[in-house]
Amino acid sequence: MRTAFPILILVVAFALGACSDTPMGPDAASLSAEDPAVAPAARPVGVPAAGIANNAAGASAAGQAQAPRRAPAPGDASIAAIAIGAGFSELVGALVYVDEELDAGLVDLFLNGTDQYTVFAPTNEAFEGLYEALEIDAISDLPAELVLDVLRYHVAEGRRAANSVVPPVRPRTITTLLAATFSVDRDGVIADIAGQEVNIVAADISASNGIIHVIDTVLLPLE
Length: 223
Hints:
Layout: H1 5-15, H2 49-57, H3 79-85, H4 89-102, H5 106-112, E1 117-122, H6 124-134, H7 144-152, E2 155-157, E3 172-175, E4 181-184, E5 189-191, E6 197-207, E7 210-215
Parallel strand pairs: 1-7
Antiparallel strand pairs: 1-2, 3-4, 4-5, 5-6, 6-7
């Protein structure tokens, strides 16, 4: 993975003027794994990026896991419930932060919403790498408007399984809720606007309201 640390630092400069004017829902809520409404879901079982690519290309290789050729059926738990149960505490914390500061409605959207979304979910380690690069302690050290834009850059409309994300040959462009794009190559590597190379490390985690793909770096919509 290649991370453009000088580009990451631009987050701070961009934050001074960043502003998002389109809230995504009516209510903010506090999430807790102890809340019965968001009881922890089963920990997802991932597929290595190499296996995802092989599936998309219609090929196979010894020792490599393959993603299903068809999109998985909707699961029982919502995107937010799965994120809580699987320990994506930094991602959940970012959702709560923008809801509290901006009344963005992201928690309700991903917990109770019925519209389908594809979420590229950074691991806790991915967020920690971002904090280290920016020399901050937590996501709340950044402006909420900037964090909202970053979160929207991780979501696409509809259920997009691995076979519609990872291309067989040429890179595929994914358009996000921010109206900005990133590309994915046949090896399951994402190239974001900031020039980072981000790996899809687990795919096709099916929720009632979408699909989650796990990534190892926070995507940045900054040139």
